[in-house]
Amino acid sequence: MLITDEIFQALLHCETKSYLNLSGEIGTQHIFTDWRLSLIENYTRECRVRLCANYREAECLLLESSLQYLENSKYRLVFACMVRAQNIQSHIPALERISSSRTKYNHYIPIRFIPGEKITKHDKLQLAFDAFVLSLASGKPPLFGKIIHGYEYKAVKIKLAGLMKVIQSLVEKITALQASSTPPQLILNKHCAECGFQPRCRQIAVERDDLSLLYSMSEKERKKQHDKGIFSVTQLSYTFRPRRKAKYSASKSDKYHHALKALAIREGKIHVAGKPELDITRTPVYLDVEGDPDRSFYYLIGLRIKNGDSFIQHSFWADEMSDEKEIWDSFLRTVAKVDNPQFLHYGSYETTFLKRMKERYGEDAENSAFVDQLIAKSINILSIIYAQIYFPTYTNGLKEIARYLGFEWSDRAASGLNALILRSKWESIREPLLKQKLIIYNSDDCKALERVTNFIFQLCQGPREASKSRDADVVYTDSLKLKGSFRFGTNDFTMPELEYINQAAYWNYQRNKIYLRSSKQLKRISKKKTRNPPKALLINKVIECPADTFCPQCGSKRIYKYGVLRKVVHDLKFSRTGIKRWIVKYYFNRYRCKQCSTTFVSQNRPLVKKFGPALLAYTIYQIIELQLPQTTVTKSLNQLFGFNRNRSEVQRQKVRAAQLYQETYERILNKIVTGKLIHADETKISVEGKGAYVWVLTNLEEVAYFYTETREGEALQSLLREFKGVLVSDFYAAYDSIDCPQQKCLIHLIRDLNDDLLKHPFNGELKELVREFAGLLKPMVETIDQFGLKAYFLRKHKAFAERFYKRLSNRRYESEIAVKYRKRLEKNRDKLFTFLDYDSVPWNNNNAEHAIKAFATLRNVVRGTSSGKGIREYLTLLSICQTCKYKGTSFLDFLRSGEKDIDKFMRNTNRLKKI
Questions:
Q1: Each residue's pLDDT tens digit, 810-837
Q2: Total domains in the fold of the chain
Q3: Full domain range(s) for residue 568
Q4: Is 737 inside a domain boundary?
């Protein structure tokens, strides 16, 4: 069978279509194909007239199939030439004779007529196929080809040398298809919408449940699934496993899951992943635009505006491209009348429309700003659906989803392709009925968008609101049982026999019932556990509390004993060389008053909790200074001292310690904010899956941490409202709003300069700027190394800093990076060299960064599992620990002392050492 240009064109779209054409099968007549052929015929006819106008009638030849006429040099144009060579045939729309001195090339070049404004890769390959057949038939390839396209009949010259190799491989593929007895793998694609074989192919795909039914799945992804042995949508659906989102990726956008889409189709239910949000804060305006993408021409704008409980529909129609500005102006005037309008649209086509129209007709600055605001506040409903809401439809197209939700278009055959055809026909005959059909279609799109938006809004409110709309047709993946390839936990078995077998494989069962029968050692261990249960802890000291002498209620001394109570306190006892367990048992009385009949417990009873102060100190020391996980601390105390504590008791110890030392923390913070120098820094932390921030304020002796949910500077500004000392910080903008002298960290600036210099090694301007700044700073650092941070010796460098800035202001940099650093240096001019005017003010922020490192180590232990309240407790205790370190005293000794003032503790310690 001949390989024709129709078969070749079919291959470019789909291998299955090409194979069916080769087999002689005929598809159903498609309205788009008929329209496309009619368009090409009319355009070809007009192109012939225009080309012939440039030549005499005798030089033009029409409808000749023989190549012998091409040897006659009198024909400059040959139209509808049928060229055949071997088993390949092409119907070439036109051949033009050119004058060329190169004898190895054919004197005729092929010409193709394309009605569209844009030339596609397929158009170029079709032209190259004509040239390939012409080359085989004449023995000489053409030098180039031409494509005449668009409303202005532009002629574009196409080089053919590289394309001819591609044609050779495609022809070989067609030959292989022709010789094959089995059809190629059926794959649905975009071309199916305009193909006559669509009903046949789709039916086969549905019967096979083929993966290509999933419109969003790429060929690469399909091949990946095929390699795993997954060929159907149903098979793919069983591969979905709900996953708990990692803490570090909580703020990242969700990934699209083809398996979840397949699951939604299999179960016929909407599946919601994550927590989609639809924030409609203004008056909703549903926008849908119809246009001709080939010409970038927008001819119909549809608006559906909410007005109370009803809607108003607007349609703006353009007869010609010259009317586009008029409908744009009418569109803007209508939207401007709406109170706080907010566009809702489906897909990116409308966003592109708004941006392009602003570029074309945005001369008015006021209108331009209004359009920018509309674009910024607009919501693409498809972007909310994508990766979060999975409808049981093969695509996320508006037509499929709206129809699933019960909406139907006035014309059941309505589609984007049909709209293009209707517009083309209207432009030819100006039939009012065609215009009316397009306006109704556009209005229906707006109504469908409203239906989908309302449903999405209900889904975003949560399961309870969503259930009101569609009963049990919505499944939230958070409610699905988490599954993984490798996991611990209880398995669900379909048969009791399988569950029995599984129970027999557990470690405890195997060790206690199976292995001990064959191991004497395991038998002895088992018997030893049975004979020796855990012993009660020995009491080291017994204390009988003094008797009470009067009633605390009425003051009467006529009281009598009403029972004896006891309390056991678990504690530790420190010696010079070690620690041992120390358990004290207290006895105290309960009394009754004869005069007022009040029952009361002895006022002399011990006020300590179940665990003593030394044990509390040692526990907090391990959690905060040694930075051990609470589970590890629990195991350590139980193993070393024989306690039987659990993790919750250790957690309560941390809470209790934070409450006890809150006063100490506030005293430290007050000393910092009333001082003369503060170093400040901040770092991020994950709290229950959400991002938050921890700030540190420190001077040379005290350290205080505090927690905020955002990186905004309100809490910092409130804290430092009365501070008038020098603030040393990095270049984060939140610090700039604090009203006090500031010193920016110069080491941050040096590192930034160095990094950018490494990225731009050949930027002479940046290199010179860095060299000058380094030359300015180096003598300052040398002076500090020699005399310390004393303004008396540092003030001499201020003159050099002024000269540096004077030279900087006179320079005119061309490179973007150099301009950026000049602006940065000038912006922070009064904050870079503050240390030259004050004693004991460092030129870097290493003091705060060192304090942040201590928290970062603790953060790695907590790992985002603590709540905001828990983080604040950690920070209270860490502030005290780091302050002890900065002051050169022991955190553990301070906790053991029972003192709440660190300075007072240090004075007492020093006095005892002198004694």
A1: 888 888 889 899 999 999 999 999 999 9
A2: 6
A3: 541-660
A4: yes
